[in-house]
């Protein structure tokens, strides 16, 4: 076994490690296992651990079991963990093939998988299926592009045809290099906070304002690891950093002794007074909100100015390696953060994990100024940039680099919307309810210019599409995407989109072209995953036609549901809600139209 260019020779260590690794793989290679296959695949690559080798039939059956677990070959709604689990299963599959010398997927094996994935809208996983390491079919990429075109996703198909082959899971040459390990500069002051929250708040915002305009504050959180399927553990530590100082907040103690002051601090952090930096910021805030009752309001609160540095694929280590040219040590990530006092190694890790976000933001700005050329911010010896220089580097960024970070609305918002509409959910066990899926659709404002739409970009009320088409028109909501709040001259340039949702049986697939015709829209596309929460208010797998963020969203319902008595639709949470079809359609003013395409298997 090798780890970071060091070879371990001890036989006892090898035997113990191999036994533990075999146990992890045994759990990661089955859908019901308690270990994430994506993490297991990453461990194979990063630690040079060998995956299990078996016959090709056994390896392929393991991959197929994952697809069957998530509904293959039936067209059912994908769950929230579908993309992560299937991505990890494909990566493990590729590693097992490479280790055992077996051939990759054939055309016959991969075609039904592509049909199913495109039908569910899981295009990212479908792209992995046609990579050369996974599939031997030379025409796989072209076949996927054809499926996307047939389902009305012409733009995605065009991007797929034009885009060069994506990065494979194999370790690149840069990843195999021994890079200097990043360390925190001695000039950065680290504070442990277990009292005096009001003083912390005052010092934090004063320091952020002194170091630059706009002020940047980086946020990170740590919690005790928990196994898959077990209840999540509470956030134990929150780190807040500016260029010169870092505050480590002992959350259990502070929430117990100073709940009002902690609430005040977080309200100020999300108010827009500063730009809140994070890596997976939405996830950290959600975990904080779930951990403490006095901060539950964060679940339904948007951050007015935020910048999530996790916009590109890869981990924080990958970003540090690429942008800073250094290795970020993560050995303490899965340590016990509930113990007190924390070790010196844990304190250093926590402080650096937050401070490195400021360095990444500065490096990104430097790269943008140099037309994408990577710029090293950290020193060659591994020490992070001095606070004064880091503050200067951050000043080139502006508020235009930040945008609101929208929180999911959740099931409580949907329940309130149902109450306002006078709709009463039926018993979840209602046998007459037809399972339905709700698909988010978007039409850019520019796509509707041929309709002579003269609506002001700042208008947020429903508008009617003017067209010579004699068919009755439906209304779409105008959603104005966020822009620089301090720039009053760019109102006419703000992107504007029309939103709609389509409701159809889970067994059916949406025809985007038919939906576009029903809406009277010249161009229509599926909403991207990152657009769901900002525009529609809900995360993948929980979207329904009621309680959406944008007002006046057009609701299309497939004609196959027109005679059904009850519909089971998304509720904004993990459980669906059963509603009377007639009452729901009347309350929402839906449009019935034939929007379902023929089954992919019947083509």
UniProtKB/TrEMBL annotation:
Ranges for domain YbaK/aminoacyl-tRNA synthetase-associated: 500-575
Q: Which domain of life is it from?
A: Eukaryota
State a single Gene Ontology molecular function: nucleic acid binding
The segments labelled Disordered in the record are 449-469
Q: Which InterPro entries match?
A: 3'-5'_exonuclease_dom (IPR002562), Exonuclease_MUT-7-like (IPR052408), RNaseH-like_sf (IPR012337), RNaseH_sf (IPR036397), YbaK/aa-tRNA-synt-asso_dom_sf (IPR036754), YbaK/aa-tRNA-synth-assoc-dom (IPR007214)
What residues does the 3'-5' exonuclease domain cover?
214-361
PANTHER family assigned to the protein according to its UniProt record, in alphabetical order: 3'-5' EXONUCLEASE DOMAIN-CONTAINING PROTEIN (PTHR47765), EXONUCLEASE MUT-7 HOMOLOG (PTHR47765:SF2)
What is the protein's given name? 3'-5' exonuclease domain-containing protein
Which species does this protein come from? Polarella glacialis (Dinoflagellate)
